[in-house]
Amino acid sequence: MSDYSAKSVKGRKGDVSAHDGASSWFYSDEVKEHFFNPKNFIMNDVDESQFNGIGKVGSPACGDELRVWLKIDSDERIVDFKWKTFGCGSAIASTSMASVMVTENGGMTLDEARSIKPQDIMTRLKGLPARKFHCSVLCDKAIRDAINDYFRRTDQTDKMIVEAKRMIDPIAKVTDHDIEEAVLDGALDLEAVQKKTKVGVGNPTILPAVEELIRFYREKYFG
């Protein structure tokens, strides 16, 4: 059972509060609708022969894993989107909303779908708690992974976009992606990022570059 329970907090309908009362998160009606009634979610085994773009991001060992299956037509529009996730309520709501966004109005083109940003999903959900923002990032990454899979299957490898990682701290083996993930998980300053990644602990000369990356990701995702 989750450490959190839904209850009403004075003046803020729909909050979720920790049992110890230390913090509370507000969930919009849109988030609750997509959590309790997820769209395009698939519970049983998937017949992968019905789909031509399959994506995966995350790992159950880390607490969040998302798998998506896309059906892409001859015009390279996404006409079906099924998904499973081993994640929290925010991950469920975010993926459910993303599946609606890419298939509504005849389906997005692959270029349109590949351009979806976490902020676009957040806007449609009317917001998520800051510490749950990384859940919406899973969605856009999984979609891009599935689109790459489609281009691989159709021998259009020139259209694939590989998300490269840059080594920031060769001593601690920390990449720019590790720092990005730390910021998304709520580490918004150098001390918090170091606590999560150990970046720069044995190599202080890189700290200015690390702080610049933190500022970049903080502004990119949180404004």
Structure overview:
- With 223 residues, this protein is of the alpha+beta class.
- It folds into 2 domains: 137 residues, Sufe protein. Chain: A; 56 residues, Arc Repressor Mutant, subunit A.
- Helix content is 40%, strand content 18%.
- The chain contains 8 helices and 8 strands.
- Strands 1-2-3 form a 3-stranded antiparallel β-sheet, with no helix packed on it. Strands 4-5-6 form a 3-stranded antiparallel β-sheet. It has a two-stranded antiparallel ribbon with strand order 7-8.
- A hairpin with a 5-residue loop joins strand 5 and strand 6.
- The longest helix is centred in the middle third of the chain and has 21 residues.
- The radius of gyration is 19 Å and the shape is globular.
- It starts with a strand and ends with a helix.
Helical stretch tally: 8
Question: What name is given to the CATH topology of the largest domain?
Answer: Sufe protein. Chain: A
- The low-pLDDT segments are 1-24
Residue share in β-strands = 15-25%
Helix/strand-derived category reads alpha+beta
Number of beta-strand segments: 8
Distance between the termini: 34 Å
Helix share of residues? 40-55%
Arithmetic mean pLDDT? 84
Shape summary: globular
User: Biggest sheet, strands in spatial order?
Assistant: 1-2-3
Calculate Rg over CA atoms: 19 Å
Please name the CATH architecture of the largest domain: Alpha-Beta Complex
CATH class group of the largest domain: Alpha Beta
